[in-house]
Amino acid sequence: MTGLRRFWPIPVWAAVLVLVTMVLRAWHSDADQAHVVLAYLLVVLGASVSGGRNLGLALALVAFLLIDWFFQLPYGEITVSKPLDWLILISFLVTSLVATQLLAMARSEAAAARRHADAVAVLSLEHDRLVAEAEHAKALREADRLKDIVLASLSHDLRTPLTTIKALAQESALRGDANAIVIEEQADRLGRFVSDLLDLSRLKGGAFPVAPELNTAEDLLGAARRQVAGLLNGRTVVSMVNASAPALLGRFDFVQSLRILTNLIENALRYAPPASVVELVVTRDDAMLNISVADRGPGVPLADRELIFDLFYRVTDSQPDAGRAGLGLVIARRLAELQGGTLDYQVRTGGGSIFILRLPAIDSLVES
Questions:
Q1: Is the distance from CB of 94 to CB of 44 less than 8 angstroms?
Q2: pTM for this one?
Q3: Which of 192, 264, 311, 368 could form a disulfide linkage to 214, CB 3.0–4.6 angstroms apart?
């Protein structure tokens, strides 16, 4: 269909040229050279407008021959008997060629102008879209800034009443109040939550102290196992370290890395089945220490795997757990990144989860 629309001017203007020639032949006695040349020039211009430069040039050449054959003496021959007739033919041909070229240039400039207008319209729409996105991003940044201010203020302001509640609960426990122990436990959980909020606001503000120094991975794993010893409830935490190989050294903040690893182990113990084993494995991978925490729990659903490190996120089908608000993994990942490391999640073959903490490694004490 596109091809037909492209070539339809050729037969149409060829027919017009034949028709004009027949009319001029019929009125030959009443028409002079100027009428003939003007009629054919109009045909050439019309063909150039609708069919383009090539069609206009082709019809100009054909009209040149028709004028010479039918309207110049001697008739019926491609020849000219008078110099003035040559002038008429050449003037017609030159006028046709120049007019056709000018029309082609005008069409080209008009097309370029349309393309420019379309490009300007597209750029205008893109500009409007970018402005809207920039305003939206600015609003999000401002909302995030206000959220951080609220979190920092809230965490600071809650510390004093929590300390008071805990002190009163301890006094009530000494007087034999059975509810005092529950109050104290809940105050401790709320205190951990407030502490996490404060640490998170300090992490986002770049004011969290991290001091990387020489440490061994074995010491970190041993300290983490001692830290969670009271949370096992029949489960076991084992360290899988090659004791015959040289100690694996790293440059990391021992206290903050211990906090990360303890958080990962506590999560594994929380979701691991009774009597199961949580495995701690440390390996060296080029310039990084890989410390993995593997459990045989239910794992993380596919839809949640990209979200578990988001602020306040909890797995949709997880059981309610007082004192947990989805901050542990967020803080853990940011603490790892502050030390030049990473924290990622993998699905464990056969069921369960693996969290991998990567920290900078060093080769020797001399390098440190």
A1: no
A2: 0.54
A3: 368
In 3D space, the residue among 331, 332, 334, 314 whose CA is nearest the CA of residue 322 turns out to be: 314
Q: Is the pLDDT of residue 99 over 90?
A: no
CB 248 within 8 A of CB 289: yes
d(C-alpha 16, C-alpha 333), whole Å? 80
CB atoms within 10 A of CB 158: 17
Query: What stretch of H or E contains 283?
Result: strand 277-285
The Cα–Cα gap between 262 and 257 comes to 8
How far apart are alpha carbons 39 and 21 in whole angstroms? Answer: 9
Query: What are the Cα distances from residue 159, in Å, to 50, 163, 172, 184, 192?
Result: 84, 6, 20, 14, 10
One CATH from 1.10.287, 3.90.320, 2.60.40, 3.40.50 for 140-204: 1.10.287
15-64 pLDDT, tens digit each? 888 888 888 777 766 666 777 777 888 888 887 777 777 877 787 888 87
DSSP state of 86: H
- Residue 285 φ/ψ region, left for φ over 0, alpha for ψ in the -120 to 50 degree band, beta for the rest: beta
